[in-house]
Amino acid sequence: MFSSYDPTEVTEALIGGGIGLVAIVGVIIFFVLRYRIKIEQIKADAMVRSEEVRAKNQLEIERMLIEERQNQSNYNINKNLFSDDSLSDDEMMQNRRNQKNRM
Q: Is 2 inside a domain boundary?
């Protein structure tokens, strides 16, 4: 079986196998690198989306705070307007009670 071998055939087989092995390894490396690049792109896209959501939420919070401040200032203005009237009404009621008590 091995008694009649040609050294050139063995060399060619080894070289052919080596070239095939190098080609397979090259293809595997190519696909692994492409896969890793896709993973990095997905991570980058996720980070961009999360930053967009964070910025949107921050703007929403700031808008709500501004509205709350405006509502609070409007409430304080209205409270002051009505409290002057209610104080005068209270004073009027107290005066009436005092007048009734004097009689």
A: no
- State the pTM of this model: 0.47
Helix ranges (H only) for the chain are: 7-102
Tokens matching residue 71: 């509502």
Q: What is the pLDDT along the chain (103 residues), one digit of tens a residue?
A: 455 666 677 677 767 777 777 788 889 999 999 999 999 999 999 999 999 999 999 999 999 998 888 887 776 666 555 555 555 666 767 777 777 776 6
In this structure, what DSSP letter does residue 3 have?
Answer: S
Domain count, the chain: 1
- Residue 92, domain member (yes or no): yes
Residue 1 inside a domain? The answer is no
- Distance between CA atoms of residues 25 and 30, nearest Å: 9
